[in-house]
Amino acid sequence: MTDDTPPAREDPRFGALPGRPGKIIAVHLSYASRADQRGRRPADPSYFLKPSSSVAASGGEVERPAGTELLAFEGEIALVIGTEARRVALADAWSHVAAVTAANDLGIYDLRVNDKGSNARSKGGDGFTPIGPALIDARDVDPGALRVRAWVNGELRQDDSTAGMLFPLPQLVADLSQHFTLEPGDVILTGTPAGSSVIVPGDVVEVEVDAAEGQSTGRLLTTVTQGEAAFDPALGSLPAVDDTQRAEAWGAPLPVVERGSEATETKRHPQPDDVPSRVARSTTGSPLSPELRDKLLHAPVAGLSAQLRKRGLDNVTIDGVRPMQPEVKLVGTARTLRFIPNREDLFAAHGGGYNAQKRAFDDVSEGEVIVIEARGETGSGTLGDILALRAHARRAAGVVTDGGVRDWAAVAAVGIPVYAAGAHPAVLGRRHVPWDADITIGCGGTAVQPGDVIVGDADGVIVIPPSLAEEVADATLTQEDEDAWIAERVAEGHPVDGLFPMNAEWRARYEAWLAKR
Fold first, then answer.
1. Cβ contact 78:99 at 8 Å
2. Number of H helices, E strands in the chain
3. In which region does residue 340 sit, left (phi positive, over 0), alpha (psi from -120 to 50) or beta (all else)?
4. Beta-sheet pairing, 146-152 with 155-161
5. Which domains does the chain have, with CATH numbers?
6. How far is Cα 30 from Cα 401, in angstroms, rounded to an integer?
7. pLDDT per residue over 378-416, tens digit each?
8. 322: nearest Cα among 384, 425, 389, 412
9. CB contact at 8 A, 446 and 315
10. What are phi and psi of 348, to 5 degrees?
11. pTM score, two decimals?
12. CA triplet 317, 319, 321: central angle to 5 degrees?
């Protein structure tokens, strides 16, 4: 310990505790409501360890790490050990508990698979164990009549009591003492009931524990922020999620298939459509420079189309879409989202919770265009006013979908450029399943990759490979100047023969005019 390192009792992170805990032991599954939600009831309690560096005080912040999506809260009752316990009897176990308080056992499901049950990385991050704000004397309460509640943004999400636990609190203390010594200041996180779910930056989580006798810990408050530091792939495994992790993080049940008389969770393996060749996406937003963006804002889509055709690219227009605001120009880089045809079992697995559609709109960056593959199916909406508002708040450049739009007038009123195939009042699940994002897709008969340059005006929408964007923009603007000069000559009464396109004589006149400008 250095001279400027405060002792544990002065460290604000441990303000609700007697000192820095030597051990934090957490229970995997302990409430019947949570176990039933997961579809499995353990015969015995099981545990994992959390570092004391993960402890945080009430009123603090927790970062959702960059590159992750599934940060989940878990409101819990925490026990603070008061006297040493080693091989204690069940009848004596509660006497070794000094205090009860509230805790939030935060975790990142994106890292859970790689942890293989240890939860070292998924639940060990700094600030991932808020505790407090006040202690309840364990001698004054009935361990079988404690209640834990959790709120997200003021909405009650969890409400259960120790009467609903599979393993009573004294049993947890006695069981752990069989395996190692519980020391004064150690903390036991006793598990979470049903209702745990995903939280996102900006959310505020509150957890409170109270006793039948009237005592309360007060509300333990934590605010979620967005982390900026990315994980280094050269050092270890990266965050990864699958349908099982998403379902468990959000608290949604997995589809069940009946096999004879036994119900079994559906096993999911990557399908061909799940693992296309992915294109890396910049995490710093649009790669368009202000100068290139300005050029594209002044370059008409018709002119860009002509220049791309000269370079051998003729299949670059997103067909069948029309602008909701023809007077507003669309310029940005593609962020892709893919819908597949609706199938009830697949929608049950992919359509609810924090699905691909919601993730795309939540994560779009300034200057990006969300381009949606809906297969030209207009019998359902692919976005509505809420998602349009979210894209606008994220400063997205616009949205292009070859499907329908719900709340057409309300979406138009948001002000963000939207190109769509038509209006339809039905929700997503009527025709579509949100499947994946940031992959190569087909929209309006055209291939679109993440990072492609998207330009739209009253004539339509065009897709430009990023490597050609500057060249094509410059050539289009040059051609626009030439066409404007030709239009002036036609307005003067000159016939178009030989002028459009220009023959050698007219070309010489044009070059002379340019030299004098």
1. no
2. 13, 30
3. beta
4. antiparallel
5. 8-227+238-245 (3.90.850.10), 287-471 (3.50.30.40)
6. 46
7. 999 999 999 999 999 999 999 999 999 999 999 999 989
8. 412
9. yes
10. -60, -35
11. 0.53
12. 120
